From TrEMBL:
This is SFRICE_039556. Residues 1-46 are annotated as: Disordered. Residues 1-11, 22-42 have a biased composition (Polar residues).
């Protein structure tokens, strides 16, 4: 706005012309838009950093999961408690991975194809091994229950 000096040295403001108002509003809108864009960029960078940290944690979880899977030797499991223990170890590793997976999905992790492939591969390993352990445990339990028990008489001289 421009100032106009009157004869009595009084200062008054001239009203804005419609053209000037439009220029002023455009300048204000441009500066607001620029500030919003900077905030959006900062939020986006923060989100990318957070997503990167979560994927890094998940990579560590995947390695721990692989170690757990490598220690489970299904062929050597015989007793019910061994099967249950193996399942419990497997499930405890997987719960951590699954929980973090949903957090990653919430941060647009579904756009990261490498991560999606890794997760799918580990999920398949988990499901296959869990099924194998449960099947073998069921067959062992079934065999123990269905095999007839025979008392062997003790003969005394």
């Amino acid at each position: 706005m421009e100032l106009l000096l009157s004869k009595q040295q009084g200062v008054r403001q001239l009203p804005q012309l419609p053209q000037e108002a439009g220029v002023s509003n455009r300048t204000e809108n441009a500066s607001r838009s620029q500030a919003n864009q900077q905030q959006d960029n900062a939020k986006s960078a923060e989100r990318v950093d957070k997503l990167g940290d979560m994927i890094k944690k998940q990579t560590i979880n995947f390695r721990a999961f692989k170690r757990t899977v490598a220690t489970i030797e299904v062929e050597k499991l015989q007793n019910k408690w061994e099967f249950e223990d193996a399942l419990k170890c497997l499930q405890s590793r997987w719960v951590v991975i699954d929980n973090l997976h949903w957090e990653i999905e919430g941060e647009n992790g579904d756009e990261n194809m490498w991560y999606q492939n890794e997760f799918s591969e580990h999920e398949k390993i988990y499901n296959d091994l869990k099924k194998t352990i449960n099947s073998k445990m069921w067959s062992e339990t079934h065999r123990d229950k269905s095999t007839p028990k025979m008392d062997i008489p003790v003969f005394q001289d």
